Amino acid sequence: MFTTLKQCGNMRLEFAQIAANLSLRAQKRRAISPKGGVSMNKYELGVVVRADLEEETFQAEMTRIKGLIERFDGNIDKVDEWGRRKLAYPIQKLTEGMYTFITFTSPAGTPREVEARLRLMENVLRFLIVRKDEVETAAAPAQEAPKSAEAEADEPIEAEAVPVEAAEEAPVEVVSDEPTAE
Question: Does 10 reside within a domain?
Answer without folding.
Answer: no
